[in-house]
């Protein structure tokens, strides 16, 4: 747990940061001042002053009985604020640009929106593709590659699918009927191969491939590649997924990963 103190010009800030890191590693059981002092090789009064400041700002919390410190709500909230839906489109736009340039296909970013998925960003290729989509538009989770990838790498169970299917049945865009068993099969396939598919289920002649983006064990967004269905062969889908695994991970912000297939 020992964290070196860097020779920075603002030592007080550096000390506070390493104390926060130590508290994060300790988890909910927390640490006493003595434990922090020993682990970080800091003076007790220095640790006390830093903790007092962190506590006052909500970045540390002290248990009234044990006296131990844990991370405060404001420290935990930092990551949530950064990865808020209002920020994700801006943070992930370079990923969409790079993927569209590499594949020469239409790329969408979607975020979970209840039982639907909302388009929050897209990058169009140089070549034209006739598909209607708009930022702010929502599509049923069960009938989209974006949504299926979110379901595949989330915590949904087979007995919860009726909620998603009923939402899709209220839409006039679906071209095929979909049962619980059929949707569950598609989810299982997506988990196994790392990507979901949707072929001519929303628009004639249009097919999509979707992948989920994870924060820890939770999917927070999904990226899809849309193309003419006659070009979206099995070989092309595998090629696109391989390209995604090469292009996307290096461009993701810290803390966000590409969902892995169950074989990895």
From TrEMBL:
Top-rank taxon: Bacteria
Pfam families documented for this protein: HTH_IclR (PF09339), IclR_C (PF01614)
Domain HTH iclR-type: 10-73
GO biological process, one term: negative regulation of DNA-templated transcription
Molecular-function GO term, any one: DNA-binding transcription factor activity
InterPro entries recorded: GAF-like_dom_sf, HTH_MetabolicPath_Reg, Tscrpt_reg_IclR_C, Tscrpt_reg_IclR_N, WH-like_DNA-bd_sf, WH_DNA-bd_sf
UniProt keyword terms in alphabetical order: DNA-binding, Transcription, Transcription regulation
Domain named IclR-ED: residues: 74-264
Protein name listed in UniProt: IclR family transcriptional regulator
Organism: Boudabousia liubingyangii
Taxonomic lineage from the root: Bacteria, Bacillati, Actinomycetota, Actinomycetes, Actinomycetales
